[in-house]
Design brief:
single chain; mainly alpha; about 70% helix
Length: about 210
């Protein structure tokens, strides 16, 4: 496993920021929909510490893939549980894609020749797009699974929930295969949409940035 400390000095704050915004958006959407659970438990905050999951942080360093502690949500507060759950679940990925859009505008119009500045922008756009798209995959417990479960008809939704119990094991299995068998499953799913959106947001300056930093 290669470990470049200079890359991680930039990458860790950017990743913590992306994860924090993601979880904060879930909690803020839930509060807007009537659920005060995250606020009561101190999770409606931009402080990254309450959002850090120890196992997720360890996996981040070992496998370059990790996760945050999910914001607690009680859908019983929502006037319409299915609609409210979809809005709450989409809030996190949309927050990440919004951050990536802002980073893309900075790359497109304010590309200054500073190594640190450019590294932060590249990590901001790619990490936030990656986090946003990854969480939209319909594999429990990712956000996309909550969206799909509440779009499906009731009978199909219940069946999907039953199958979804195996989702975390499937997800962990894919991550392990990617890291030890080098199957590239996650990369194959994410790489195309990631660079399509990154180029859409940042324009041709994204290619210049990639050439400059690599």
């Amino acid at each position: 496993m290669s470990f470049d400390i200079t890359q991680w000095i930039v990458r860790i704050p950017v990743l913590l920021f992306a994860i924090t915004i993601h979880e904060y958006a879930h909690g803020r959407a839930a509060l807007w929909l009537g659920d005060p659970t995250a606020k009561r438990m101190g999770r409606l905050t931009l402080n990254p510490l309450p959002h850090i999951d120890p196992l997720g942080a360890i996996c981040l360093f070992l496998f370059k893939f990790g996760w945050a502690k999910p914001v607690p949500v009680d859908p019983r507060y929502f006037k319409n549980i299915r609609k409210g759950t979809i809005i709450m679940a989409m809030a996190g990925p949309l927050a990440n894609l919004s951050l990536a859009f802002i980073a893309g505008l900075l790359i497109r119009f304010f590309l200054y020749p500073s190594q640190l500045y450019l590294s932060v922008l590249l990590d901001l756009i790619l990490m936030n797009i990656g986090l946003g798209i990854f969480n939209l995959l319909p594999i429990p417990p990712l956000d996309g699974s909550h969206v799909l479960e509440n779009i499906l008809p009731l009978r199909a939704s219940m069946k999907y929930r039953q199958i979804g119990r195996f989702g975390p094991m499937v997800l962990l299995g894919i991550i392990m295969l990617d890291n030890f068998a080098h199957t590239g499953i996650i990369r194959t799913i994410l790489i195309g949409p990631m660079f399509f959106l990154a180029h859409l947001f940042a324009g041709d300056n994204l290619l210049r940035l990639l050439r400059f930093l690599h």
